Amino acid sequence: MTDNKTTGNTSHNENSNSTQTPLSLHGALHVEGTALTDSHRNPMQLRGMSTHGIAWFPEYINPETFRFLRDSWNTNCIRLAMYTAEDGGYCSGGNQEELKKLVQNGVEYATELGMYVIIDWHILSDQTPLAYREEAVHFFDEMSKLYAGYDNVLYEICNEPNNAGTWDDVCTYADEVIPVIRANHENAVILVGTPTWSQDIDQALASPLAYDNIMYVLHFYAATHTDWLRERMKTCIDSGLPVFVSEFGICDASGNGAVDIAQADAWKELIESYNVSYMCWNLANKNESSSILIPGCPKLDGWTDEDLSEQGRWIRDWFLSEHS
Ligand code: IDC
């Protein structure tokens, strides 16, 4: 961590005998070849929960939830998902000051706990990141000025381009947004979404962006996306592409429906064998199978088996099986 920023209190799972946190242990992250690496140039795997839309489920942005996820679920990262075009989104009538305040609170809580945090510009129904490019430039300029000295902040500039959102669009957009972030926060790791709801990482491989410290985003929902997408991930990483799984579920791509444990286990095995970072969708109690809490669960932390959905129990067990 830079300068006088706190690196937080004890995390039991990162190092049970000390007051180390993920951030104090690993420091600033960089991309070397296909790997995310820490400040000691060791491979680094980020893992944790993605919030649901912060406009809809702001209650999970609180220090006790994050602390529980760090200490009892062995996670080291939080993703803050801010929709841009959905109901109450940043560019579709949401209160921008309130949304930014939620992001800032989330970053501060993560920082106090020594966790990494991803600021996610969650495009979806807007399809192409060019739809709100000006808003995005202003937003990321403001955020990267605020967090220029923070080694734990990553920027995810476009969740999921889809339909009209082509790789050309992403490149045009990235060439506007990335230099703005880099002017403020020089070495930040930046995550770049890919077409077809962040499945077409092969297009990024064919025509990569000309920046360092970039990772390309792959998303999967295990009941929908199976062998063919795992094969693509393997091929792309083997061919030199740095890949980051900033969102996934083990149900179908609607965020609902039955979970597929066999497919989920196959993804888990692949992700571990390549040491890919992985963030699970979603930290909420919505009535959908991708929510890790059962519908209406009122607890913000301290969850036990009865509070967790099937996906919730599965992802908790994965996090707890990790060693560092
Ligand atoms: C879904 C939420 C759902 C919400 C919907 C809005 O789970 O509650 O009503 O968005 O359209 C994604 C997206 C993510 C989706 C998720 C499940 O990044 O925003 O969340 N999903 O559909 N990509 C693939 C699946």
Question: Any chance you could write out the topology, listing elements then pairs?
Answer:
Layout: H1 22-26, E1 30-32, E2 35-37, E3 47-53, H2 63-71, E4 77-83, H3 96-112, E5 116-122, H4 133-146, E6 153-156, H5 167-184, E7 190-192, H6 195-198, H7 201-206, E8 214-221, H8 227-238, E9 243-249, H9 261-273, E10 278-283, H10 310-321
Parallel strand pairs: 3-4, 3-10, 4-5, 5-6, 6-7, 7-8, 8-9, 9-10
Antiparallel strand pairs: 1-2
The chain binds ligand IDC.
Question: Can you walk through the features of this model?
Answer:
The structure is a single chain. This protein has 324 residues and is α/β, with parallel strands linked by helices. Mean pLDDT is 95; it is low at 1-12. The chain starts with 21 loop residues before the first helix and ends with a helix. The relative contact order is 0.13. The longest helix is centred in the middle third of the chain and has 18 residues, at 167-184. The strands form two sheets. An eight-stranded parallel beta barrel has the order 3-4-5-6-7-8-9-10, surrounded by six helices. A two-stranded antiparallel ribbon has the order 1-2. It contains ten helices and ten strands.
